[in-house]
Design goal:
By secondary structure, the protein is α/β, with parallel strands linked by helices. It has helices at about 5-10, 15-20, 20-40, 90-95, 125-145, 155-160, 170-190, 215-225, 230-235, 260-265, 265-275, 310-320; strands at about 70, 75-80, 115, 145-150, 245, 250-255, 325-330, 340, 345-350, 365-370, 375, 385. One of its GO terms (cellular component) is cytosol.
Length: about 425
């Protein structure tokens, strides 16, 4: 239908809107278009209908938090997954290792609780596909009484702020394709009588960017449109993330916590970061998410040498959080594998599994009831399962399984 014919189109009679069947057509069209765009962008996924989590011990302590979890009681089975950085294949391998998905990528984890500690974005080309895949698993897990909680890492914060220093060529292309499909979907919705004109996330954005190669301008522009505060991708996926999480005796955070963070309020941090991502508080993240001592940037407890980790500070922080015995963090690659220092009060789970990082063997941390944590690893040179963490070895490293493996690689962002 061309523009002239649209101008000649007669007004829609009121009877159209009074007919229940016709009245529902715009909703059906909108839902179909959204599913079409999701399928095209996600690599062929149909997202199951969302359902509220079942009432259980995993219900949020504060019902008014809108499912933004800060405090959870200990589940029967808890799995912690480190940084994924745009590598869908390695992400699936880690989840299969934990018995959470089958070979087709369907949830088989039952009532398990999974915590992914952040840094899905950057360094790889499957960022959107991982976001969609995790969303699919969240919905599948909820039907079985399970739960997947995703967290903010420093790379989520950076991208919402428009800091794309660690984006790959493939990552820009994935977002360029998203932008094309999203725009097609909006145009389809605009043709449907009864639907509001969709908001254009590209409105007001430049088409060229100084210091960026011309071939990357479309992907750069699409990434800004998708991820800026209240963008279609940031508000849909990243605003669901927690920034600090306490599950039973374990405190999860991407970088680390300082006493000031705890006194400021863990629930308050989660809510303020969520509101910022939703576009309610300006362009830049709160101060506790920026610079080296931020909750998503801190490295005081993840140095490769156990002697350089500030164990007394860590103990002080944990003592201020009721019931907390350990802090579990990502952010700094542990080439020796998942490991613990400071008498296992600091457990580091970023093994650099993404091909964009260290291409490490996937590993996950598992808790069964009140038993000590163990590591599940895909490294063929190590045992498939280990029952405990070795602490503060003679080499000064907090290694899990072996003392003479490769050292960590500390990645600056």
């Amino acid at each position: 239908m061309n523009e002239r014919s649209l101008q000649r189109r007669k007004p829609i009679p009121m009877e159209y809107f009074e007919d229940p069947i016709c009245r529902d057509v715009p909703t059906f069209v909108s839902s179909f278009v959204d599913s079409f765009v999701d399928f095209s962008v996600s690599g062929g996924l149909f997202l199951p209908p969302a359902s509220p989590p079942p009432a259980s011990q995993n219900a949020p302590a504060n019902p008014s938090s809108s499912q933004l979890h800060t405090w959870l009681s200990s589940p029967e089975r808890l799995i912690a997954v480190g940084d994924l950085h745009g590598d869908l294949s390695k992400s699936k391998e880690a989840l299969r290792l934990a018995g959470l998905i089958d070979g087709s990528g369907r949830w088989i984890g039952g009532s398990a609780t999974v915590v992914q500690i952040g840094d899905v974005l950057d360094r790889g080309g499957d960022e959107l596909k991982i976001l969609y895949f995790l969303e699919k698993l969240k919905r599948e897990a909820a039907k079985d009484g399970g739960m997947i909680i995703t967290m903010n890492g420093n790379h989520e914060i950076m991208n919402v702020e428009g800091d794309f220093r660690y984006v790959t060529k493939e990552g820009l292309e994935e977002f360029r394709a998203w932008g094309d499909w999203f725009s097609v979907g909006n145009k389809m919705k605009a043709l449907c009588v009864g639907l509001e004109t969709p908001k254009d996330p590209f409105q007001g954005l430049p088409t060229a960017f100084r210091g960026v190669k011309e071939e990357f301008h479309p992907g750069f522009r699409a990434r800004i449109a998708a991820l800026h505060p209240n963008g279609p991708i940031s508000s849909r996926f990243l605003s669901q993330n927690t920034t600090v999480l306490v599950v039973g005796e374990s405190v999860f955070v991407h970088g680390g916590l300082l006493p000031g963070h705890v006194s400021y309020g863990l629930q308050r941090i989660n809510e303020e970061v969520r509101d910022w991502i939703k576009g309610l508080s300006g362009k830049f993240a709160p101060d506790y998410c920026r610079r080296s001592n931020a909750v998503v940037w801190l490295r005081k407890f993840s140095d490769e040498s156990a002697t350089n980790c500030d164990c007394s500070l860590l103990k002080h922080v944990l003592d201020t959080i009721p019931g907390a015995k350990r802090m579990i963090m990502g952010h700094t690659i542990q080439m020796a594998g998942i490991n613990g220092v400071c008498n296992n009060q600091a457990i580091r789970i970023d093994v650099g599994m993404s091909k964009g990082c260290a291409d490490g063997f996937p590993e996950v941390l598992e808790f069964i009831g009140n038993s000590p944590p163990r590591i599940l690893t895909s490294n063929p040179y190590m045992k498939q399962y280990t029952n405990s963490l070795n602490v503060d070895t003679k080499d000064g490293l907090g290694l899990l399984l072996h003392e003479h493996g490769q050292k960590q690689v500390e990645v600056k962002a």
